[in-house]
């Protein structure tokens, strides 16, 4: 039994000599394994097809290096191609020349936005910034309270429509666009150098929610719009990412719940269909469970 793609590819080549160039027959033998592994990792089918075609092209005629056998050589090509697609270098946040830098969060309900808001605030604070959190999710009962709790956990203030919303059943009324605008004005007045605007999601892509997010985007002109996506979302990653890309033209992606079983196929799909960089990963419910995204680590996760 070979579990990882690396193992399976290496095994495919076990009985073959390792001299000269990789042949088409050798490469074809591995393509099936690569396809299967990527589909297992929940990468969308069109993305898998294109990926495999690129690997094949790259592998054909490539000189087998002295230090690797052909199996290891293909593993290296697959790894390099994954890192390339996932973005090569890590992309850092763009900060505004004239503070405050405005960062807006968007994504489906339950994707992990409110949790991420706290984590991102904590991360930025540790880098010497003075963030303000703004609670514009007036859709989900308790979302404002949840952001206030996260703000307290990380020692970052929260601008909210009105304080004291504390019960599950109580919902907040108000205009989220006005709250966003007022929150940014508050940050400017109180000299916060970064504002993180949490917005409402729905369980599925919904025209009204998307319009609200687009309106908030237009009102506060964010420097970054981060699309938060649950890495366990599987094959629907493509459709969801496309809808948010069209709706709010996000500038970067945050993969949440990477502590779960997901192999990270969503990362590849989202990156492939939108071309937008993956910037951060969320890896648990704690405020410290947060990482700057590293394409090479994600490539290993998909391969292993
Ligand atoms: P929102 O609706 O997009 O604001 O989503 P929330 O931030 O409320 O997150 C939804 C649920 O997922 C909550 O129970 C969070 O504690 C949980 N959650 C968020 N991020 C992560 C993560 O990275 N890992 C795990 N295991 N759970 C998470």
Notes on the protein architecture:
Keywords: Cytoplasm, GTP-binding, Hydrolase, Nucleotide-binding, Ribonucleoprotein, RNA-binding, Signal recognition particle. It is found in: Cytoplasm. Its EC number is 3.6.5.4. It is an enzyme of class 3 (hydrolase). It catalyses: GTP + H2O = GDP + phosphate + H(+). The structure is a single chain. This protein has 304 residues and is of the alpha/beta class. Helices cover 46% and strands 12% of the residues. The protein has eleven helices and eight strands. An eight-stranded mixed β-sheet has the order 3-2-4-1-5-6-7-8, sandwiched between helices. Helix 2 runs antiparallel to helix 3, helix 4 crosses helix 11 and helix 9 runs parallel beside helix 10. The protein is elongated. About 3% of the residues have low confidence. The structure holds guanosine-5'-diphosphate. The site of guanosine-5'-diphosphate has 18 residues, from helix 5.
Question: What would the keywords be for this entry?
Answer:
single chain, 304 residues, alpha/beta, eight-stranded mixed sheet, 11 helices, elongated, binds guanosine-5'-diphosphate
What's a concise summary of this model?
The protein starts with a helix and ends with a helix. Helix content is 46%, strand content 12%.
Topology, number of strands: 8
What is the first-to-last residue Cα distance? 14 Å
Q: What is the 3D shape?
A: elongated
Main pleated-sheet profile = 8 strands, mixed
Proportion in β-strands: 5-15%
Biggest sheet strand line-up: 3-2-4-1-5-6-7-8
Helix content: 40-55%
Number of helices: 11
Unreliable stretches covering 5 or more consecutive residues: 163-170
Average pLDDT level: 87
Bound molecules: guanosine-5'-diphosphate
Catalytic activity: GTP + H2O = GDP + phosphate + H(+)
Keywords: Cytoplasm, GTP-binding, Hydrolase, Nucleotide-binding, Ribonucleoprotein, RNA-binding, Signal recognition particle
Binding site for GTP: 107-114, 198-202, 256-259
Protein name: Signal recognition particle protein
